[in-house]
Specification:
This protein is mostly helical. It is built from 14 helices and no strands.
């Protein structure tokens, strides 16, 4: 077996830290943080927005930094910042300081996830759908673990268990960083920066396929972050107990371990737009179900369908983007579409928290989120049309 395959489990661990622990776990920790710190839903949404702001600030530069310095250095730098962010959150009491640590956590994520995608595509250019599905399954593994562990720990420790969780995340991120320091090696063909960077960037931004892929990624960022931040709280407010809601979230994470791989592999054969359409459609149904049926069965269907579809969205969007440009342009293209994803994530929590506070119900926020997923499905169809048109 080629030595390059060892980079896949390590990249899975990096994606777990960058997205599952640094981003998606917040929705599970939110009820405990709100109770302990007496936060409003608007403030809770602002904390999620702060992470997205940090992510947005560095996600586009991350592509350029990766081209200049290689993905290994940038990944290790990003992991270091996530350690700092996790540790800060575990020890902070003031809301304004929490905002600062969330921004730092977002910056660390930006310097971690985009470079690791560039890294793994560089090692496996011929199987990008498969390997990106594998890498993104690390996100599912992280969500699975969080769904089991967070309700158990965060509900204890005299109301301060959420601090213990953030501290544990810091330890995990540190261990992944140390392992990466010794094992990561840049691909032989890692593209480096040059005076042609501006020309490369211009051609990327002018690509209609890249822009459409970016539009899809924006929709994913906007709609899915609302669910990750507030769905667990919605379940609790609907009478679902903490452990049951956590178990359902964990089940969704377990399913996404395999679904990302399946969708990514399927997209290698059927095409990226068709896969995106199916995943968007399934995610929309998942979002609307607990709105119509706010029962334990309704939330079970939500987490089941989300686990089966959302990982496919992440893997397929990135694989599609990397195909629409030359290999030397991949870091810039991924940075560009991920910037749009980050803008969606920046808007989503603030809008969701405001809508929940104003309306007094979670349903309106999730109707907006589900409708966005349907728009994503239509955008995927248009991407398919444009791709066929350009390919003759």
């Amino acid at each position: 077996m080629s030595k390059r395959w060892v980079y896949i489990p390590l990249a899975m661990a990096v994606s777990m830290v960058a997205l599952a622990l640094a981003r998606l776990s917040y929705g599970l920790l939110l009820p405990f943080m709100r109770d302990d710190l007496s936060l409003s839903f608007q403030q809770a949404g602002n904390l999620g927005t702060a992470t997205s702001l940090g992510y947005l600030l560095l996600v586009l530069p991350a592509g350029y930094l990766t081209r200049h310095y290689g993905p290994r250095s940038i990944i290790l730098c990003g992991l270091g910042l996530t350690v700092v962010g996790f540790a800060g959150l575990s020890a902070t009491y003031g809301y304004s300081v929490l905002l600062l640590w969330m921004v730092i956590l977002g910056i660390g994520t930006a310097l971690t996830y985009t470079p690791v995608i560039t890294y793994i595509v560089g090692w496996f250019p011929e199987r990008r759908g498969l390997v990106l599905g594998l890498v993104n399954s690390g996100i599912g593994l992280g969500v699975f673990i969080c769904g089991l562990v967070i309700p158990l720990i965060a509900a204890n420790e005299s109301g301060h268990g959420w601090r213990v969780v953030w501290g544990l995340f810091a330890v995990v991120a540190f261990l992944v960083g140390v392992t990466g320091f010794f094992l990561f090696r840049n691909p032989d063909a890692t593209p480096r920066g040059s005076v042609a960077d501006a020309v490369l960037a211009g051609s990327v931004y002018r690509s209609r396929l890249v822009r459409l892929a970016g539009a899809c990624y924006f929709i994913i960022g906007f709609s899915y972050i609302v669910q990750t931040v507030f769905m667990y709280s919605f379940a609790l407010s609907s009478g679902i107990d903490e452990k049951s809601a956590g178990a359902m979230a964990s089940m969704g994470g377990l399913l996404s371990l395999f679904s990302g791989l399946i969708w990514g592999t399927l997209s290698d054969y059927t095409g990226r737009p068709a896969t995106l359409f199916l995943c968007f459609s399934g995610a929309a149904v998942a979002t609307f179900t607990p709105v119509v049926f706010p029962t334990e069965s309704g939330f079970l269907v939500h987490y089941l369908l989300s686990g089966l579809t959302v990982s496919g969205l992440f893997a397929t969007i990135v694989a599609a983007t990397s195909e629409y440009v030359k290999s030397s342009q991949v870091p810039i293209a991924i940075g560009f579409v991920t910037t749009l994803f980050a803008i969606g994530q920046l808007i989503g929590p603030a809008v969701g928290g405001w809508v929940i506070d104003v309306s007094g119900t979670f349903s309106t926020a999730f109707i907006i989120s589900g409708s966005s997923m349907l728009i994503g499905a239509l955008t995927a169809l248009f991407l398919h049309y444009r791709q066929r048109l350009l390919n003759g």
